[in-house]
Amino acid sequence: MTAIPLQLGSLPLGLPFPRRRQPASAGSRIISRSERTATERAVQERTDESLLAEYLRGDRSAFRHLISRYRDELLHFLTRFLGSRAAAEDVFQETFLQVHLSADRFDPSRRFKPWLFTIAANKARDHHRKYGKRRAVSLSTTISHDEQGQRYVDLMEADLPSPEAPVVDAERSRLVKTVVDAMPAHLREILLLSYFQRLSYNQIADALEIPLGTVKSRLHTAVATFARAWTAARIEDGTQDGR
Amino acid sequence: MNMNRSGETPFELSGDDQRVLDALVESGFDPQILERMPASDRPRGERLVHLLGLLRDYPVEDGDETLIHATLAGIDRYESARAQRMSIDPAESRDLQAKRFRRLPLPSVISVAATILIGASIILPILHNLRQEQLDMKRLNNLRYVTHAVDSYASDYDGTIPTARAGLSQMVTAVADAINLTPLVEQQYCRINQPPARGYQPSSTGPWYQSNMVLFLGDRNPIMDAIRQRRLDSPLLISLGHDRARHNILTQDGAILWLDQPQIRPDSTRLWRPRGVLWLADDIYPRQPSR
Question: What range defines the domain where residue A191 resides?
C-alpha cells in the first residue's frame, strides 16, 4: 500500500465535531425559559415518535412541530446533498409529504430520525436521477497517484500546517462547496449521513438498503476522496493555507 | 483495477485511518471518543475530525417559517386532490354513465355479448368434463382402497368376508350373503371417508376371491354419507332418494365398470342393491378375527 501525503491546508482550531441537535421547536429564535408556556415545554419534551403518534390521532399541530424540529437539520442535509437550496426545499416538502402518507406504517418501536432521513435520502436520489447528474469534476487530475489499483490516503502523512484561521471565510466555504458538489452522489450521501446525522453503520445500511460491509468501504472511500479532493482543490486554487 | 461509478480509480483510506474512522462513526462522533482512544490513534482521530469538520463550512442557510407553511400547504393540496378524486357526485356519475352508455354502439354490445356466449359455450363443457374426470378418478382411487380393505379383512378371517343375509324377506333368503362393508370401517380396515357401501356376494362359503360374481360398490349415495357421518345404525338401510348418480362395479379381477342407473324398486323407490334383493339383514358377519 502506498500512502500519499496530503496537504489539507489550515483547518479550523478546535475539534469540529458535528453539532448535537438543539431542543427543537424553538426554531431559530432563542426563547428564554421564563417565556415558554407550559404547552411549548410539553411539546419540546415530547419525542419525535410521540409527536407522530399524536398526528396519527388527528393532532395536526404535532406534525407542524415535527417539521419545525427538523427544518434546519433536514434542509442542511438536503442542501449539501443536492447542492442547491431550491432543490433542497422541493425535496424537503416531498419528504414530509411522504412522511404524512406513510405515517400509519411507521414502526413506533424504532426511531423516527433514521426513518426520516431514509425517506429524505431516497427522495434526494430520485430528484438527482430525475434532473440529471450534476457537473462531474475529476478529483485527481492534478495529483500524482499509483496507476494500478486503488490509491491510498494516509492522513498521518498529510502535510497539515497548524490551523491559523479559526474563522470560516467565504473562500473556504466556496472551496468546500466545490469539493463536496463534485463528489459522486453516493459518496456525498454517505458522508453527510454519517457526519451530520451521526447515523451508525447499521442505521446507514438500513437507510440505504446496502450491506454493512459496503457501507464501511463506501464511507472509507468517501472520506479518502474528500481528503484528496480538498487537497486538489487547494492546489488548483493556488492557496496553500486553505483560504 | 477498481473503478468507481464515475470511471475513476477510487481512493481508499489507510488501514489505520479506517479503524479510527470506524470508531468515530460508531460513537456517533462523540467528542469524548478521542480521549478514550489509545494515544497512538488520537492524532489520527483529530486529523479525521478536522478534515470532516470542513464539511461544516459548506454554505447552508436555515429554513424559515415559509418552508413549514409551504410543506403543510403541499400536504393539504395533495389531500384535497385525493379527496376530489375519491368523491363521486351522483349527478356527475349519472351523466358519466349515460355518456359512456351513449358512446357504446349497439352492434358493439351485441358482438361483445356474442363473443362472451361463444366463449362460455366452449369453456363450460370443458370445465364440466374436467370436473367429472376429477371426480371419477377420486372414485376409482377410493374403490381401490376398499378392495384392499376387503382383501385384508379376508386374510384376517380365514378368507371370509363380512356378510349380511339378504333376500326377499326374513323368511325367504334369496341371497344368503351380501357383502357388508360396515365392519371394514368399524375395524379400521379402511377409513370412514372412503366410500364403503353395501356389497353383494352370493356365495357365503369359500374365500371371496373364488367367487365369480361381481362386487357392487356405490359411491356418493345416502348410505355412504351416513357412514361418513357415523350416523348409520344399520349398514343395510334402504338407500332412499338416490340421485341416480353413477355406481361403480368392482369386479373380482379388479376391473371397474360403471352402473349408470340405480336399481329401481317396484314401488319406484330408488334403491341401490343387487337386483332381486328386497330385504337385507344386518349385523351378520364374523366379529372375531381368526388370529
Answer: 134-144+151-237
